[in-house]
Amino acid sequence: MIKSFILFILLVPAIVFAQLTLSPNSNSFYEYHLGSYLELTSYEVINQKIYGTGHNYSTTQRALYLKLKNSNNENYQWVLRNLDTNKIITKSLKPFKQFYGASVSKIFVAGAYLDSALGQPSLEGIQHINNLIVVSSNSSWSALQVILGKGDENLGRQRVDMFLKRIGITQSIGYRGYLNGVHGNELNAMDISKFIQASYDEKYPGSKHLFQTMFLSRTGKLRGKKYLPIKMNVGGKTGTYNGQTTVDGEILTAQSNHHTMVFQKKGQQYSLTILSDPGTNEEVAVLSLGILKQYLD
Prior knowledge:
By secondary structure, the protein is α+β, with helices and mostly antiparallel strands. It has helices at 59-70, 106-116, 123-134, 138-148, 153-166, 189-200, 207-213, 281-296, and strands at 15-16, 19-20, 44-45, 48-49, 76-82, 87-91, 99-100, 178-179, 182-183, 186-187, 234-247, 250-265, 268-276. The model is unreliable at 3-47 (pLDDT under 50).
């Protein structure tokens, strides 16, 4: 279990094309910050705070939350988990329902790479993880799969698949693209929750680096973070896609709006994963705070 925060990205170098660049003159891949997650409030990424956006949550938003939560609509699936106790606090009716993952599955590829590097990633690999998680780069997504396969992206996809199965993720398909005719990037809320738990518990080499990097994600300010308090440190990964894709062998038009979040509340670490298709930023936003208020306040 992670007890202190090791800052995974050097925050001082220049920003190039919206990517975070590591200093080539650094003697270490990491900058260290010893202490608890509560001390994260002093950090920013490209002048953006790494916690909740703090918009006003009124009776209008609460009414929409209750409508969404009580409708049993399969378009919305979620899991709220206490990472310190490894217990699910609440979940939707069908948390294993498969969705097109969009960019959420980037965390699976990053985890597979860190595992393959035995927790000692190269400078190039670290840069790709920074780009993947913090600014959601698609080019780094494919590049990490190529690195995983030592130049063969299909082999990289196979290694992503093997990695996930080894740590108990058996229903989601985490690689990008196709492998032996099987479409990748199909996932469910429960598997994402399990993966974040495995990362928090350091069940694979380098897992803490991925978990900590998620706290520097720049995306989701008007999605899951929108109504969360401005003093709450919120990390995670979003996924957005509108277009044709395949899920469970069926060709369909996806309208994916996903957000998986990690945060601390009352001294405990939690993860909340909300998948929606079709869904909107506002619907994910009201579900996010509504679930927290109902089950953690």
